[in-house]
Structures are given as C-alpha cells and as structure tokens.
Amino acid sequence: MAPPHRTPPWGISDQRSRTAGPTRRSLLAGVAALGALGAAGCSRVATASGEEGGDLLDRLRAQGVARLGIAGEIPFGYIDKNGELTGEAPELAKVIFKRLGVDRVQPVPTEFGSLIPGLASQQFDVVAAGMYINPDRCQQVIFSDPDYQMLDAYIVRKGNPLGLRDYKDVVEKKAKFATGTGYAEIAYAVEHGYKEDDILIVPDQVAGLNAVESGRVDVFAGTALTVREVVKKSSKAEATEAFAPLVDGKPHVDGGGFAFRPDETNLRDAFNVELQKLKKSGELLRILKPFGFTENEMTDLTAKELCGG
Q1: Given Cys at both, which of 52, 112, 183, 193 links 17, Cβ 3.0 to 4.6 Å?
Q2: What is the residue range of the signal peptide feature (predicted)?
C-alpha cells in the first residue's frame, strides 16, 4: 500500500512532537485536574524479570491496568475537555489491551521528548503517542508494527500564491519555511538543500498556522493529517495536497506505532497479533477514523522495515 520508502537522515530528530489543536503545554496543564490519577501514573512500575521475553504482560493482567505514556497531542494521545483519555493511540490501546486480558489503561502525561526516557525508567508500561518509528529510536526501544502511515503536507496562504507542493519548490522559490520542534520535516527540508539555520522552528501546528497567516513565513510543513485539521477554520490559509518527501531520491513514508522496553518482546509480540487482526477486519480504521485518519493512512508497513532492517 505504501510507496517505496527510505530512512531519512536521523541526525536531526524525528517528528512526533506535533499537535493539530491546543498546544502540548496547555493540554498538559489541563490534566492537572486528574490529581491523584496523575500522581499514581507517575509512580515507577516493577522492573522486568529475568524471564525470556519479559513477564510484563502477565503482571499487567494481574494488575488489571496498563500505564500509557502520552504527550498531550491531538489527535495522537491526549486528555479531552472532560478529563478523559482519548486519541488514536489510547483508543487503540484500550481495545488491544482488553483483548489481551488487561481491563483498563491509565494515562501518564509527559513531554514528547520524555517518552522514551520515561519508558526506560519504568514510569509507564508502553508509549501510546503515535510515535514515528525510525532507526535511531529502534536502538532504544522496540516497536509494534505501525498502526498508521503518514505523508507530509503544507500550510500555505489561500490560493497557494507561490505554488508550493514539495520541498523542491520551497528551495527553488526561496520560500520562508517553518516546521515544528523535532519534526522530521526539518531533515527533509535540509536534504533538499534548505539551510537548517534558515528554518523557523515553532512549537506546533497551531503556531505554524499563525506564522503563515501573519506572513512571517510562506509555508509550514507538517503531517498531512494534522495540517488538514488545523486549517479547517482558517480564512487565510489552506492545506496542500499530501505528498511523500524524497529521501535519497526516493519517496519516503513514515509510520507510527507503540513503543515497549527492549526486554518486553512477549508483550510487543502479543500486541502485534491483535493489531494484525484489527487491520484484517477493518476495525482499525473504524477506531482511528474519528481522529481524522482515512484509508490513505492505513498501512502494511512493518516495524522492521521502518527500523531499517
């Protein structure tokens, strides 16, 4: 389903510190109302045993709850205005863990950059934040197969006056370019010849939209899904058609999934079995569709492919 892909130059951090709604900071502030829940979620869990493949799944079944690391990012994983955990990754996790015999999931909100360190330090059991799978991260955690794939798109002023449709256009037309903190789009722009020092880095899609609307930049690059969601109410900006960025001259497609500690292969493998069932039945799309995902975001990519192996 996905076009050919190659791994981008991950000397620059991968994307997935992105939002299509309120900023990560405001969303994290909103979870303060959870009080004791947040405090309980931040407690450390027991370390993995010496059992081959780990025994975390058995312990989660006994506990009846799995702790999910989230980054307060719409539509990937966040606390809604009613104080409820939702997003594409948490909703999918609820279904899969239920099938695995774990009745509940509990959010542990943190900054996106703290997700992998938090997982390693036992603050939660799994990262459920739609995290992009890339070789650098695959050296630190193990991933489920991706539950979605993602192309890029731009926020531009209405009518797209500069005719910006890909990174080549941005470079050739000397457009003022912006993207988000830690986004994969930084690497894609640099690969096409855009000077990294000339890129305006903003916190998220909302800030990117504001930069385009105010004329500070000509274009903001993000994921197709979040870009098309954030411009819906704008009278000054629009989203371009989705496209696959070129990496080493070939189209590249990103994919996001769940991250586990390296020694918990039993849990990861059991999770993958249920994920594949959901893909085959079409239930995966039904779970993700309320968050803006379409058939175009469904994928047969594997974690092994995205890890570079």
Answers
A1: 112
A2: none
